[in-house]
Amino acid sequence: MPITPLTLQDRKQAQRPIVALTAWDWSLATLLDQVGVDVILVGDSLAMVALGYENTLPITLDQMIHHAAAVKRGVKQALVVCDLPFLSYQESLAQAIHSAGRLLKEAGVQAVKLEGGHPRLLETVTHLVEVGIPVMGHVGLTPQSVHQLGYRQQGQSALAAERIFNQAIALAEAGVFALVLEHIPAPLAQKITAMVAIPTIGIGAGPHCDGQVLVTADLLGLTAKAPPFAKVYLALQPLITQAIQDYSLDVRERRFPGEAKT
Ligand code: KIV
Questions:
Q1: In angstroms, what is the span from residue 250 Cα to ligand 1's centroid?
Q2: Whose CA is nearest to atom 2 of ligand 1?
Q3: Exposure of 13 in the CB half-sphere (CA atoms within 13 A)
Q4: CA 118–ligand 1 middle distance (angstroms)
Q5: Which helix (H) or strand (E) holds 148?
Q6: How does pLDDT run across 20-35, given as a tens digit for each residue?
Q7: Each residue of 89-125: pLDDT tens digit?
Q8: What pTM was estimated for this model as a whole?
Q9: In the beta sheet, which residues pair with residue 42?
Q10: Which of 12, 67, 152, 156 is the most buried (most CB within 10 A)?
Q11: Which of 18, 32, 39, 41 to mutate to test the pocket of ligand 1 (most atoms within 8 A of CB)?
Q12: Chain-centre distance of CA 140, in angstroms?
């Protein structure tokens, strides 16, 4: 059965953890979907892990649509959520609806994610939900604010923790169907998770969230430096390097292709 935002809410009720990962192309998305990952996020982290940008700010809506459409073509079951990139939703309500609408219409994703919880953003969430676009929220460390926040853990002081808690509650009230909690102290994530009816999906937010997400490039060991909270399940970079070195040597020494393989 295809996963929907309602499925995720049922998962929270049933206390069955939600598995989420990021994807940026068709081949990776196909594998994640076949394994049974619940949520495939076309995160704007692809700006860094797939396109080589220094942070997530430069990626455009057109680039996100291009990648999201490729991901969507590989997915049959998972819920595909796509990030609204920086400055594709902050200028006006009309801009947010237009950008989110393009992701649904042109890429075929089922939901969008946006970062932050300030009052004008809450209004945007309400409008998107009113026109029928499911929205995932994202608080704590919000990489689109890197020039204000850096990549440090957020919510360390009582005041900062209270601000994130209030944003989470307000986003839930505004209608988000799920909430990413990024790089905040575990007790704060636990408190938010207990207070909201919607599922929380943690990344560097401890074990008490309703689900977990990682940037798949970190999990696979494809990034030069994964964040401290990521778990590297496979060190793929040296394996790829070795395979390419082996191939190069075979070609240079005329071992590949052999006589039989033309
Ligand atoms: O862009 C992204 O990959 C994300 C995850 C880190 C949640 O937003």
A1: 39
A2: 43
A3: 6
A4: 19
A5: helix 146-149
A6: 999 999 999 999 999 9
A7: 999 999 999 999 999 999 999 999 999 999 999 999 9
A8: 0.97
A9: 82
A10: 67
A11: 41
A12: 14
